[in-house]
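wait is this the right file?? whatever heres the structure
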């Protein structure tokens, strides 16, 4: 499943999923494509994971709803029902809003905690820090204490073809290695903080700690109807959000994994295979 289970410092399990896009069927319907509501299917799948692994917390990494600027009639019905059903599982439900989650507050029961779009910092049982964010906005400076930031937003997939030309598109996890120096340089520019030499030193002087972020993990969308950029046909414009648009990625060396954990290789290798398969 496209879900992440983290054991927090107090021993509780924290379940993390991203990109539900409840109500996306209306956009397809406007294009003449009829797809039944997937809200119940998403809920059933999520509840099964909760019952299998007994997490104490569920953190949704944004884009719970699909409409960006408004709330559709189906979202008024499906999203409150979705949250209320999850709360019956005796689990803490938390939301880090995404770019599709404008005006989501009226749709959420009071028991659902809504965090800042700037993300959440989570300490694990191994005393490491993980940053959690949707990915459409810059994180809070506190998240740069984490060596790894986990985000959604992109819906990464890999496109595969066999020798007969049959095409498969599979959701994947992507582990991106970043340059901390370049990442922080772009962040300081965003914050309009001037520096002359080391961005690391300037950040530490401003915020009181040295940034440690070295990896970004991009989660696949929990809604398996959604397909985003095929990472083996990568174009820089295909990736969205300041963390990925910044010139900080060692994108060719990024590692790609299927949902079952199978390591497919680095993006550079997968791109070469993709080109060769089309010759």
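ok assuming it is, sequence goes like this
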């Amino acid at each position: 499943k496209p879900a992440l289970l983290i054991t927090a410092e107090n021993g509780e399990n924290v379940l993390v999923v991203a990109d539900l896009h409840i109500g996306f069927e209306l956009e397809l319907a406007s294009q003449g494509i009829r797809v039944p509501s997937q809200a119940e299917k998403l809920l059933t799948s999520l509840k099964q994971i909760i019952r299998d692994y007994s997490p104490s917390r569920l953190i949704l990494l944004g884009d719970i709803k699909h409409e960006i600027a408004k709330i559709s009639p189906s979202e008024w019905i499906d999203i409150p029902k979705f949250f209320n059903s999850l709360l019956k599982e005796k689990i803490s439900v938390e939301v880090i809003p995404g770019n599709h989650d404008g005006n989501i507050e009226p749709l959420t029961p009071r028991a659902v905690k809504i965090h800042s779009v700037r993300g959440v910092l989570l300490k694990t049982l191994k005393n490491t820090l993980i940053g959690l964010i949707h990915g459409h906005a810059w994180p809070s400076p506190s998240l740069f204490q984490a060596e790894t930031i986990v985000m959604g937003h992109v819906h990464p997939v890999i496109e595969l073809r066999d020798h007969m030309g049959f095409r498969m598109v599979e959701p994947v996890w992507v582990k991106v290695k970043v340059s901390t120096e370049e990442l922080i340089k772009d962040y300081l520019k965003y914050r309009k903080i001037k520096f002359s030499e080391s961005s690391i030193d300037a950040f530490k002087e401003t915020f009181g700690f040295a940034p440690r972020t070295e990896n970004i993990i991009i989660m696949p969308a929990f809604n398996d109807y959604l397909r985003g950029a095929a990472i083996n046909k990568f174009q820089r414009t295909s990736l969205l959000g300041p963390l990925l648009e910044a010139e900080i990625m060692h994108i060719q060396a990024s590692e790609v994994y299927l949902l079952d954990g199978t390591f497919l290789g680095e993006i550079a290798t997968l791109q070469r295979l993709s080109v060769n398969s089309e010759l």
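The domain at 4-178+213-277 is CATH 3.60.21.10 (Purple Acid Phosphatase; chain A, domain 2). so i think its the right one actually
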